Known about the structure:
Number of strands: 13
Helix content: 25-40%
CATH class of the largest domain: Alpha Beta
Number of helices: 8
Oligomer: single chain
Strand order of the largest sheet: 6-13-12-7-8-9-10
Amino acid sequence: xxxxxxxxxxxxxxxxxxxxxxxxxxxxxxxxxxxxxxxxxxxxxxxxxxxxxxxxxxxxxxxxxxxxxxxxxxxxxxxxxxxxxxxxxxxxxxxxxxxxxxxxxxxxxxxxxxxxxxxxxxxxxxxxxxxxxxxxxxxxxxxxxxxxxxxxxxxxxxxxxxxxxxxxxxxxxxxxxxxxxxxxxxxxxxxxxxxxxxxxxxxxxxxxxxxxxxxxxxxxxxxxxxxxxxxxxxxxxxxxxxxxxxxxxxxxxxxxxxxxxxxxxxxxxxxxxxxxxxxxxxxxxxxxxxxxxxxxxx
Length: 298
């Protein structure tokens, strides 16, 4: 996998909207956040656009992303927020120049569309907090993003959880939002699970739908080809009047229990303030033991 050039002081980061609109503020916090790292900020033309839920038309959002993708002075593209809409523009984007001159694409949730598509181009990307998350983000989440962008050593150690499945594995880290990954199967952006370590998180889903999506991953041959699974936050899950009978983690445990691979739960990433940065496409070592879990990026 190709690693885009790490950032250095004086580099420019473009902030764009690929999905839901962002018209609430002038991104003052995001500008200060990046400027404190010695970076410059370019606010894309999609910021402030308003078409119902979306940041302008599909063409508006695609054109802004394309412009920043092809702008040689922009060294990273930071998606302002998730929601829905990135899948509507991914096929409008020409990644030809990006494949020759890669740069970091940063975000999570709906940005999983770009992570998965970019992974299939053989280029790494960063799953991490977005500008809209700055007010609530933990210092650890912020620092992890800085380390990922500037090429510093990145590793995590988290406490033991009895639901974990013990083991050790090494492979490329891929994944993102479960609902998005589920929606991409059958397209050229579909996730490649072969010999990978899969990260999953989700928000605001019915429990039976978590089961449906996990069964889809299983029936698509994804789970049986994995080397390990990292489960982040499953936030604000919902149940029906007649309960499903398992929570989200129990559902994942039930679907994956036949596979002889390590699985770690409650990893600090996803729709939570402590959303630690993950470098997708990077080789990692996952070690799940009775004393805790380590995730180490090569």
